[in-house]
Request: fold
Amino acid sequence: MRKILSICIIFISLFLLFFAYYFHLNNNYSNTKLKSPLPDFLTIFNNCQVSTTSLWLPSLSNKISSKIKKPDITAKSALVYDLENKIVLYEKNSEKRLPMASLTKIMTAIIALENPKKDNKYLVKKEYLVGENSMNLTEGELLSLEELMYGLILNSGNDAAETIAGNFKGGRGEFIKAMNDKTKTLGLNNTNFTNPTGLEGDGNQYTTAYDLLVMTNYALINFPLFKKISATFSYEIDKTFTHKKFYLENETNLLTSYPGVKGVKTGYTYEAGLCLATYLDYNKQKVIGIILNSENRRDEMKELLDYSLKSLNIDPPKHS
Reply:
């Protein structure tokens, strides 16, 4: 009997020792385990957009030295950047927060292309038919993402933007959250979205020329479809069983008047003024230009492109 009791005591003692050791080990680990050096919004648990994180943040201090007289433009903010030489060719208040009107749709396109629906069927609802600019969608139509992208970029369709956002997993609110989450993964701190169109009214949708440079470059590099569409002047979508025929025409008129321009996007609201993001691929030089709140975005962008090319010792093309 004593022998059995002794064995039981030894067994219980070993069990208690093992339990105490296990508790100590786990408690010690929880206090000393490594924590991520990244802020919470850059972790996949809090921001699903980090699956495509990019931190291309060009320096504004690296500016070209030019003897050519700088253009005097009305735009409140502007930035022209040489992607090949990694230098600023022109800069004016490029970190000033301003409304961006339909340049918003650059980020709308990014989120849409990174998060396509598996069935590729986007249903048009009545509440998506907003704003003056549209691709002329009708309630009940079904379109593919590519078809909506043409309407979004060429016609700057607010109906296309709202249809894309409304068909997002979780709905429009989650789409706008994804837009803002994406700016964080790009390392941007001066942009905020409250809608997918650029229509104003809440006073809290803003960006900077610098942030738009980063967003535009990201879209051009990562999405061949975006690059292709933004360089397209006109496009027809044939009628199908689920939607009517569409004829779309690009609002970026420099496509046909300034050789080498390959898009990207126009924008205008009363609050934001005339805005323009332009991509130039000319004479082995790749340049992105951003203008915010201009009185004449078309002519001022031409001035900036001419000035930039001359500063690079390149004769600008003849243009109308």
